[in-house]
Amino acid sequence: MLINCTSNVNASTSNYSIKAFVNCLSLHPYTPNLTTRAIYTPQNASFSSVLQAYVRNLRFNTSSTPKPLAIVTPLEKSHVQATIICAKANGLEMRIRSGGHDYEGLSYVSLNPFIILDLFNLRSIDIDLANDTAWVQTGATLGELYYNIANVSSTRAFPGGVCPSVGIGGHFSGGGYGNMLRKFGLTIDNVIDGEIVDASGTILNRKTMGEDLFWAIRGGGAASFCVVLAWKIRLVQVPEIVTTFNKTMALEEGASNIFDQWQHVAPNLDPNLFIRAQASVRLLDTENGLKKDECKEQSWIKSTITFYGLPMNSSLKVLLDRVPPIGLSYDKHKSDYVKEPIPKSGLDILWKKMIEVENTSMQFNPYGGKMSEILENATPFPHRKGNLCKIQYLSCWSENSIELTHRNIEGTKEIHNLMTPYVSKNPREAFFNYRDIDIGTNANKTLAFAFDYFKGNLKRLLKVKAKVDPTNFFRNEQSIPVLPIDIQSR
Asked: Are residues 185 and 294 in the same domain?
């Protein structure tokens, strides 16, 4: 399915719908001045800049990318309620965006008449250090969260992702992981409450939404069920000083043998250790021959900067930059889960293919530890015990070229296809936060893509969807659909 194409929406119908939508917002009793303070239409001079501000994949920032009829940037909770009520009343599809790091642009692109609910203004962070908890609004970024935690404690942290500009909303609701997953699990394993707006425009918390919905939004993709306003999280204890290192080694230096050793030991190491292996055309990061002076002792908050790839002496304020510090690119991502070590013959084939394919690298993230202790059905995220590691395939390029885009996407697919014998099967598991439109959509109702993401947890997700959003208001190409009862029961 191609997202970056021109929509054939009837213009007169769209104009009528958006006028009715804006009028509905202006009449809503709880949204004074919303239409003048927090809504942007194509007629507004700031429309393009607001739209593009949180597009993180340049593949979806072209002249041919379908544009929304309006962007609503709520300043308070009631603005979210009114947007849902008015969009639903006027038959408009609504896409929900926080940080904009959706790999396939589904949080801000649609082929149907649509609006964007952009939550970047809802970004307050309230830390309760006495109870080791915090309330974080969904429009905040990981970097803002980490910075705020570090401001009140040098021994508290939160097990989230590495990229500081990622929005809290999508990162949490899709699973969320970082370099502490072997010690503390995923972000969703450390979420203890939430505040949402449902399809009727009602604000709910964990108690009032019920455990089924609270279960679903922690790893099942909240955009299928509601709008999350905020999450209550549990902070974790970390040492004042941690150690990081980055070791590089070429194939000619025996990197393939080191990687083979890594895949046998990394998932079984002490949970306090997280050693990621990254393979690119020239380099493979490993622990081989590690020297003392290559190990850097620093605070946890400094380690988040180092792990992201920025210089150790970078100011902590770089975490507050909502634009990715390393810049934007055109990119394509895919994922896999590995159950058994890849044989050396397979590694030889893989390295050869990577040399042939431009711009593609692979990240191998070890599992084990806490991840093996949590049951598959504890949250919708099912990829727990039995996994040695998760693979992220990524291709990034800087030139806006149709030929280059096609070549890089196809190259990523080639490597992904080559890995078929060595990764999980029936289903071939995939990570929901590494959105990949290639594995399918809900248009044909086969739901093969959803089995890849959620495995046996899909049935419960379907039941929750049917209960809380029977009209399928919250939807995108890979959302949980509303299906007939006989299909759900299979």
From this structure: no
**How far apart are the C-alpha atoms of 7 and 128, rounded to whole Å?**
47
pLDDT score, position 11: 58
- CB within 8 Å of 416: residues ≥ 6 apart: 334, 336, 393
Using alpha carbons, list the distances in angstroms from residue 385 to 222, 237, 263, 267. 24, 24, 15, 11
> Are residues 15 and 90 located together in one domain of the fold?
yes
CA dist 310 and 296 (Å) reads 14
CA distance 353 to 206: 48
Confidence check: pLDDT of 275 > 60: yes
What residues are annotated to the active site? 434
Considering the domain architecture, whether residues 218 and 266 belong to the same structural domain is answered as no
Tell whether the model's pLDDT for residue 285 goes beyond 60. no
Residue with the bigger pLDDT between 191 and 359: it is: 191
Domain that residue 451 falls in:
440-488
CATH of the domain at 257: 3.40.462.20
Q: Are strands 156-157 and 133-137 parallel, antiparallel or unpaired?
A: unpaired
Same domain assignment for residues 78 and 147: no
Q: Is the pLDDT of residue 486 over 90?
A: no
Average pLDDT of span 40-58: 96
Residues 342 and 377 in one domain: yes
Half-sphere exposure of 314 (CA within 13 A, CB side): 20
Count of the separate structural domains present in the chain: 4
Question: What pLDDT score does 442 carry?
Answer: 93
